[in-house]
Structures are given as C-alpha cells and as structure tokens.
Amino acid sequence: MKIRHSLTGNEAMAEAMRQINPDVVAAYPITPQTEIVQLFSNSVADGKVNTEFVTVESEHSAMSATIGASAAGARAMTATSANGLAYMWEVVYIAASMRLPIVMPVVNRALSGPINIHCDHSDTMGARDSGWIQIYSENSQEAYDNLIQAIRIAEHKDIQLPVMVCMDGFIISHGMEIIEAEDDETVRKFIGVRKPQYSLLNKDEPVTMGPLDLQDFYFEHKKQQAEAMKNSAQVILDVAKEWKEMTGRSYDMLDEYCMEDAEIAIVAIGSAAGTAKVAVDALRAKGVKAGLVKVRVFRPFPKEEIAKALAKTKAVAIMDRAESFADFGGPLFRDIRASLYEYDLRPKTVSYVYGLGGRDVTLDTINQVYADLERLVKGEQIPMLNHLGVRE
Amino acid sequence: MADILEIRWHGRGGQGAKTAALLMGESAAEAGKYVQAFPEYGPERMGAPVTAYNRISANPIRLHCSVENPKYVIVLDPTFYGAVDFTSGIRDGGAILINTSESPAEWKKKLDFGGKNISIFTVDASKISKEEVGGNFPNTPMLGALIKVSNVLDVEEALTAIRSKLTVKFRNKPEMIDKNLKAIQRSFEEVQSE
Description:
heterodimer; A: alpha/beta; Rossmann fold; 2 domains; four-stranded mixed beta sheet; B: alpha/beta; Pyruvate-ferredoxin Oxidoreductase, domain 3
C-alpha cells in the first residue's frame, strides 16, 4: 500500500529510518541534519521502533559507537552533515575498512570556513575516497527511496560496505514536498533482517575485528575493499530493479533526461538537477537539443554509463557543488573527463563550480550554462574552468 | 512553469511565516495537488525578517530554487514597509496581502509596482488573532485571507485540512485549534479589497 505524505527531506529520512527500525542508532545533532535524529528519537520514545538509541558527545563517538554496534552484528545507523562528518573522519575510513554495512544519511552542507550552514557538496565530496558507497538524492522522494535501498546494498554478502545517502541541506532537508511512501510491512519485507557473516557477539565462532594489519596483509585487504566497491555497482542495480518491481519507482546509476539526441548536456548531482530538468523542457520547446545527466551513484563511479550517456553529445558542462582547490574543476568534472579519455569520439567538457555555501541555483543560472554550451558548439571559446554566478 | 502557483510569505522570526507556508502546502496537498513549502533556507531568528515560500501545481514540481516571481505576496508585519523590499519580483496580475489596520486604498498610495497590475488586500490579522487566539499570531488569519483571495483551494476542504494539521501541532494545547480556525474564518469575512 502506498501512502502519500507531504514531508521535508529530513522528515522523509526519519520516516524511512522508522520503517527500517535499526537495532542501534548513535547520533549527534548538527544543522541541517538535526531533525532526522530528533524525529527518529521521537519514534524511539513513542515505542514505534525497537532501536537502542545511543546519545553520544560528538560525531567521532557517534560513528565509533555505530561501528561497535555493527561489528557486534547489529543493523546500525547514524546521520550527519558537514563539520560533523569532518569530525568523524578517521572512523569513517575505519567503518569502510572493517567492511561494516552502516547506512548513514548525510545532509550536504558547506564545510566552514567562512562559517556557513547552507548547501554544497564539499562535505561528502571530501569523503569520496573513504571507501563508502555514495548515493545522492534529488528530492525528498529519492532520499526516502535511496535510504531504504541502501540497507540492502550495504548488507549484501558480496559487498559489506557502508553507504552514505546524501541530500541537499535546507533545499531538500527543510523543503516540504509530496512523497509516496510504502507501508511498513512492504519496507520490512524488502530489507529483511541483517545476517552478518561474522559478528563479535557470535560466541560459537569468535573473531577479532579491526586488529593491526601491517606490511603482510594490509594491501590485500585494501584490494578486497576495492573489489567490493567494484562489485557493488551490479548490486546497486539489482536492488534498484527489485525496488522498482515493488514500488514502480525506477533508479539507476544515472538519471538521463532528454539525452537520446542531446547535443549539449549538463551533468549535475542533487537538487539542482531538478531545476535543470525544467530548463531542459523550456530549451526543448525552443528546438534546442539540450539534455541532462544526473549522477545518482558517485561511488562506485559509473564511468562506462557516463561515457555512454555523453558519447553523442558535442559539449558537456559538468557542475560541481564543491571546490577542490586543484585549479582543475571539481571532483565530478575530473572523474568524468577521465572517463571520456578512453573514447576517440568525445564531447568538449567544461567545469562549473556552482552553488557554494547555499548560493541559489535558479533557472537563469542553469540557462546561462546551456547558453555557454551553445556558444562552445558554434566554435566560440569558453574557459575550461568556471565559477558560476560568482561576483568578481 | 506556467502551471505552478508561487507564493512568498514575509514575516518576522516567531510570527509563523514558515508554519503558514507549511499549512498552505499541506492544505493543497490534501486537495491532491503537488506542493512545496520551504523557508528562506536558513534557521529562523526571533524578530528578524524571514521569508517562506510555496509552490502549488497539478503536476510534480522539480524546481529547487527560491521563488523569484510570486503571484501572491503575504506580509505578516506592516512595519516592513520601507525596510524589506516585499514587492520585489511580484508577478504582473498578482496580489499582495497585508496584515494592517489600514485600507487597501491607503497602501495603494504607498506602494509602487512599477506599472504592474497588482491587487492589494488588507486584513487586521493581528487584531483578529489577539481577539480570537489571545496573542499576536497573524499567520493563521493571513492564511485565511490567502485562501479566500487566491481561490486555489476549496474553503471547506482547506479548513478540514488545517484542522487536522493544527490538531497535531497543538497536541498539548487543543483549545488553540478552534481559536485559530475562528481567526481564519473571521479573516475570510474581514479581508478588504480595493
């Protein structure tokens, strides 16, 4: 049974968490994520879930407690944002290297300084090499759907990796929209019960987890982690297929919009992709062959899918809501440019860093990028690296 | 774009602009519409000017930016005049609803819409709220005025939806539900046009 709700992104995530009913949640509040944990703790207090809710004194402790619970065999979750994610940094890597299937909503927010609490992707983009699977959401609906699917992806026997489910701070976390939720029974049937291969509480098969691992085996374990990340792509697709069969809502590594015959395209992540779809509709009505590729899964990186989606285009703008101070565009730009290198026929690519610290991304902002791409196709020069809409 | 009704709320932190936008959104959602309701992307600060927005449409809404050209602008605090540019970007043919004891004619003299055809509506929402609710909470009476003026929702359906939302909000103060609904209904009757 489907339930139509009007929910903010935070409410949608908290509702999904209530339905997931994790064994353990350890969390520390940080804007704009606070509401997820606050609303979930209401569910704990009201007896709607059986979760052991651990209040901790910092994000570092939140992730540490989540790791402990997950290693013990529990389905464990936490949630964070920005500086909170930064503060749990060292244990974020440990969660991945211990192969713990922790699922964590991250509400994307700028990393200070200057002090800023608004949306950009600098927090999770910084964690892109931590060994976590990263799934990004365009809206509240996707945040809800992605969080539930993430449990199955993380806990798959061949994967055993943690997953960050990201959504844009304030724009989605605090914006109310209509979402279609599934009933509790459907969600619980879909996610099942975690069956850990090894766990600290299994006294019949005692194991040591997280010990010293030096020159002898560290490298082999890292290779296994990389293999698991590689294999996760197929699992992400399989889980999406099953989710679609049950709910009718389809997901892929990418979301391609009007790409069949597109000559110019934008690639973006998160809520700006929604605004870009509206811009594409208007351009198509004027006969401009514009398209959009939204990247849903950033880790593992869908290199072949991206290259295939962009193969027939002439010019592509890659939009990063994060500056990585490389003087070579944002992380999405560099990964896509590298993906295209294998192919003889490839579009021109330009980088746009945009929307930092919550700078609004309007239709005009997006239209400016498509206008640049049209000029590029006509043979005009466009700088390779751009900061969109920034005041000089 | 053209099929999306856009609304902008101006209030002070604590006056309930965000709550009014949420109530408007939820009422439209109950009526089967697609909606968005969001604050000016930030934490509210008591007493400081804040903005909240609605989008309402028969179709799913994919835009995720602030509202730049609202059809309706609601001003919860008339002292914004001269301090907050609340007429900014208002759509030609739109309307502005002001919480004030003054008449639309008096506001017409004060406001410059740069040649755009904008209707002005006024209602003394603060007075209604003080009399019916027992405090200066102009958000629900202004919501009533918007429902009356905009005509996008069936009044009875909207009242039912608002009642159910207020029931959740005032779980611990149930007497506030009827008082707020009375304030909304008075606003239906007392809102003035030019």
